[in-house]
Amino acid sequence: MTPTTVIAIGRQALEVMLMISAPLFIAALVTGLIISIFQAATQINESTLSFVPKLVMIFLVLLVAGPWMLTIMTDYVRQLFEAIPGLIG
């Protein structure tokens, strides 16, 4: 296994990780932004007010995008396992 192969596998792993985590991060970011605008408008400084909606949104995104995320991850792992004989010998 050459250093180029190791770098390619690592790059692909990072791409898969970013692709899988992006929907969750975007949902948390948008929810946090909306809640912070609401808090600034109403001058409510309650920390749990931003935590609970973020948790709910992440759960909903997992319900909607979960099968897609699982498919991406299993495809990547399957590709890695199929490449093992070529990487060893």
Description:
With 89 residues, this protein is an all-alpha fold. It has a domain of 52 residues. The protein contains two helices and no strands.
- Main β sheet profile: none
Low-confidence runs of at least 5 consecutive residues: none
Number of strands: 0
What's the shape?
A: elongated
Distance between the termini: 8 Å
Query: How helical, in percent, are the residues?
Result: over 70%
**Mean pLDDT over the residues:** 92
Structural Rg = 19 Å
Contiguous helical run count = 2
User: Which structural category fits the helices and strands?
Assistant: mainly alpha
- SS strand fraction: under 5%
Order of helices and strands: HH
Give a brief description.
This protein has 89 residues and is an all-alpha fold. It has helices at 3-42, 48-88.
Topology:
Layout: H1 3-42, H2 48-88
Helix pairs in contact: 1-2
Which descriptors apply to this entry?
89 residues; mainly alpha
